Amino acid sequence: MKEKMARPFSMFSSSLLLHAMIICTMLSQSQGDNEFVRQPFRPIIHTPHHRSEAEPQQVHISLVGKEHVRVSWVTEKHAESVVEYGMASGKYTEKATGEHSSYQFFFYRSGRIHHVVIGPLKPSTAYFYRCSASGPEFSFKTPPDSLPIEFVVVGDLGQTEWTASTLKHVDSRDYDVFVLPGDLSYADTQQPLWDSFGRLVEPYASQRPWMVTQGNHEIESFPIIFPDGFRAYNSRWRMPYEESSSTSNLYYSFEVAGTHILMLGSYTHFDVDSDQYKWLRADLAKIERRRTPWVIAIVHAPWYNTNDAHQGEGESMRQAMEELLYKARVDLVFAGHVHAYERFTRIYDNEADSCGPMYVTIGDGGNREGLALTFKNPRSPLSLYREPSFGHGRLRIVNETHAHWAWHRNNDSDAFMADNLWIHSLSTTKSCWESSSVPHDEL
Ligand SMILES: *[C@@H]1O[C@H](CO)[C@@H](O)[C@H](O)[C@H]1NC(C)=O
Ligand SMILES: *[C@@H]1O[C@H](CO)[C@@H](O)[C@H](O)[C@H]1NC(C)=O
Ligand SMILES: [Fe+2]
Predict the structure, then answer these.
(1) Ligand 1 pocket, 51 CB below 6 A?
(2) For the chain, give me the number of helices (H) and strands (E)?
(3) How far apart are CA 68 and CA 142, in angstroms?
(4) Is residue 129 part of a domain?
């Protein structure tokens, strides 16, 4: 975990930075590409536990393979790791058991963190479920098994009043899967904030699968005691890494309805001789574009970024992995980290390239650090839309060839679609698969 990782923010400078950013946010006017006045800072929400101690809290679900879902939750007291579920409210025809664990972080001891995989489940179907045989009933809808499908993409969520409004906007229209490119709770070692975050997102994350990868705020490492970090993140946000032959919760891939999604790790090794790199190369080789015409990659620190914030932090990962993604004709790369929205053209190696991925930075979920207000000028011709505002993105993959991307800015209590475009899949772009354009060792 030493050199070649995107440079994390030091935990200790982050509170200074926080205050500086709050002041900037309050003083600054628009620095984006239009006249919209930047949203000012809003405070953190602490979400208390309202149920009894033994009752489940922080319920969230994630996809495990094509037909299964992992249900995760926390109880403060002993409770069984069991999920009862069925297709009608209150009628639980099925039951599955799983495992639980807890972790220690200095003087904090977590509750029991339960993970239970349920299924096989039918596609596009509502299920009702209850955890630990007590507490409220929850329900979710499984994603479709073929296109169309709609993803919500939003990074750097945090748990402020802006986070709450982003989540409300997300929820105001149906979608299938929530994809989070890192930086979840902004607990920054204050472990109870992980619990508070889990409770804040429960109404959403218990209803739709949340697929996450790590950001710098998940690291929480400490010399000698917790040198590897990710203790809370890996315990609470367990993702289906074994299913894609990954050996780490910090990177994995999953497939859903014609889409192959690579959840990469910006804060673990990614060099050519790293496990992640070898895993990525093998995972890309397994993709069948006939089955999954769309391929999407998620990182935390952006590889392309014209904001003043976090310049160069994704550069060593780009240098290590960009060629692999390019040769595999990955359609889209989403990043977080920079608290703004920015959309690029298709790029390979710092140049516009019609066979490269389209890059989008969407680290604008609403965290307590505020917005990254200043973009570099003159604007790079690769950057097509940039704006420091909170918001969320929606990727609706309509069919094998077409997807619609839309970015919705938080305009106070409303969401406003400020940017949108149609995207064509590279899998059906013939010129990108001709022998002259596909490098020889791939043929
Ligand atoms: C895919 O969707 C686009 C946009 O709706 C449409 O124009 C196109 O005809 C569709 N293609 C196929 C093969 O259905
Ligand atoms: C934002 O909301 C206000 C009040 O509802 C509305 O007047 C304005 O047009 C909106 N602007 C944008 C850019 O969404
Ligand atoms: Fe970040």
Answers:
(1) no
(2) 6, 24
(3) 9
(4) yes
In the listed set 141, 169, 199, which residue is the last one of a domain according to the structure?
Answer: 141
Residues with Cβ within 5 Å of ion ligand 3?
A: 183, 215-216, 337
337 shares a domain with 235: yes
pLDDT in tens, 57-116: 999 999 999 999 999 999 999 999 999 999 999 999 999 999 999 999 999 999 999 999
399 lines ligand 1 (CB under 6 A): yes
Residue of minimum CA distance from atom 6 in ligand 2: 411
Residues 39 and 65 grouped into a single domain? no
Q: Whose CA is nearest to atom 13 of ligand 2?
A: 36
CA–chain centroid gap for 438, Å, is 30
CB-neighbour burial class of residue 68 (10 A; exposed 0-12, middle 13-18, buried 19+): middle
Q: In the predicted model, what is the mean pLDDT of residues 245-258?
A: 98
Number of C-beta neighbours around residue 312 at 10 A:
11
Q: Are residues 182 and 122 in the same domain?
A: no
pLDDT in tens, 321-377: 999 999 999 999 999 999 999 999 999 999 999 999 999 999 999 999 999 999 999
Is the domain of 88 the same as that of 206? no
Counting from 1 in the atom list of ligand 1, the atom nearest the Cα of 398 is: 2
CATH number reported for the structural domain that contains residue 230 in this entry: 3.60.21.10
Neighbours of 104 (CB within 10 A): 12
What range defines the domain where residue 92 resides?
Answer: 57-141
User: For the range 93-99, what are the long-range contacts, defined as Cβ-Cβ under 8 Å and sequence gap of 24 or more?
Assistant: 94/118, 98/71
Bridge partners (DSSP) of residue 414 are: 411
Ligand 2 atom showing the smallest separation from residue 34 Cα: 13
Domain tally for the chain?
Answer: 2
Q: Which atom of ligand 1 is nearest to the CA of 404?
A: 4
CA of 82 to the centre of ligand 3 (A): 34
Q: Residue 6 falls within a domain, yes or no?
A: no
- How many Å lie between the centroid of ligand 1 and the Cα of residue 174? 21
Verify whether ligand 2 is closer than 6 Å to residue 416 (CB atom): yes
Task: Determine the distance separating the centroid of ligand 2 and the alpha carbon of 417, expressed in angstroms.
Answer: 11
- 201 and 94: one domain? no
As annotated, the active-site residues are 310
CA of 367 to the centre of ligand 3 (A): 10
pLDDT of residue 436: 57
Model's pTM, two decimal places? 0.92
Indicate whether residue 428 lines ligand 1 (CB < 6 A).
no
